[in-house]
Amino acid sequence: MARTIDIKADRQAALEAACAALADGFAIAIPTETVYGLAADATNPAAITRIYETKGRPRFNPLICHMADLAMAEEHAEFDPVSRALATAFWPGPLTLVLPLKPDSPIHLLATAGLDSVGIRVPKGFAGALIGAFGRPLAAPSANTSGGISATSAAHVEADLGTKIPLILDAGASAVGVESTIVKVEDGQLRLLRPGGLAAREIERVAGKPLLRAKTASAAIEAPGMLASHYAPGASVRLNVTAVEPGEALIAFGSAAVSGADGARIILDLSPHGDLAEAATNLFDYMKRADASGASSIAFSPIPEEGLGEAINDRLQRAAAPRD
């Protein structure tokens, strides 16, 4: 069973234990402002392999490499002017940039799934301090079994991966609640690879150009979170419902009236006041609670497709996608 350290109670002990475990090539659970990550040394192939094995993650699905700051990121990737402007504006924060990997970067190809590009993010808070203390980038996908609901608390990690990893660092609930937004500058255009915790309009404001969305699902996996089926609970998922079937779990938004709600197995409201930031924070925790209720299906009320609603709907569409 994993050892859990409360960062607020003993930050120095958490830093020392984490650095020791990472140096020994282990994968550990760390808190970030988006979701909890399963982190390992991005330059160590054995450590990266532990991430894939622990999660049961396909090795063709690349990992985001987390940096302490922009200076560390510049040691590993080539920045174009637009990407640099975005990094300056939004790091540390919930933005991942897919950039050309420098030929001399020690980031191992297992972390990039063999691609000549790398997804890079600078996280806020303790995670950034840990990377700085460790001195090397950390590959860190979400700390959950591959394809399942992402973890937004140490308790989520312990319930899912607690018997598979040596250490969980606990900083309470994740503030953002959904993964980072992933963008890539290519041929002068700015492409959205995954919506996330930074709204598209904020990126467009700084970049001074539109953020292009893919019209169809791409066969090429360029970044995490692009698999058609992802973020899925054990129960099936129905979206944009106006009526609930008896025994379903209902996850509502904005106190919307839903027919048949009296017969729901459990009712949760992502944000009674219609706040999309609050809804994003609650999303994965409420999905886990609904799944644990024993309902065979989880029904979601409509979520506006604006701001963080784009990221929420992306996660829900992948959760509801047909599963292999």
Automatic annotation (TrEMBL):
EC number: 2.7.7.87
Enzyme class: transferase
Subcellular location(s) per record: Cytoplasm
Binding locations of L-threonine: 34, 66, 121, 140, 142, 180
NCBIfam families attached to this UniProt entry: L-threonylcarbamoyladenylate synthase (TIGR00057)
PROSITE patterns for the chain: YRDC
Keyword Nucleotidyltransferase: yes
Keywords: ATP-binding, Cytoplasm, Nucleotide-binding, Nucleotidyltransferase, Transferase, tRNA processing
Pfam family, one: Sua5_C
Reaction equation(s) it catalyzes: L-threonine + hydrogencarbonate + ATP = L-threonylcarbamoyladenylate + diphosphate + H2O
Protein name: Threonylcarbamoyl-AMP synthase
GO biological process, one term: regulation of translational fidelity
Naturally occurring in which organism (per UniProt): Rhizobium vallis
Organism phylogeny: Bacteria, Pseudomonadati, Pseudomonadota, Alphaproteobacteria, Hyphomicrobiales
GO molecular function: ATP binding; double-stranded RNA binding; L-threonylcarbamoyladenylate synthase; tRNA binding
Positions contributing to ATP binding: 57, 61, 150, 194, 231
Domain of life the protein comes from: Bacteria
GO cellular component, one term: cytoplasm
The family this protein is said to belong to: Belongs to the SUA5 family.
Role according to the record: Required for the formation of a threonylcarbamoyl group on adenosine at position 37 (t(6)A37) in tRNAs that read codons beginning with adenine.
Transmembrane segments annotated in the record for this chain: none
InterPro entries, A to Z: DHBP_synth_RibB-like_a/b_dom (IPR017945), Sua5-like_dom (IPR006070), Sua5/YwlC_C (IPR038385), Sua5_C (IPR005145), T(6)A37_SUA5 (IPR010923), TC-AMP_synthase_SUA5 (IPR050156)
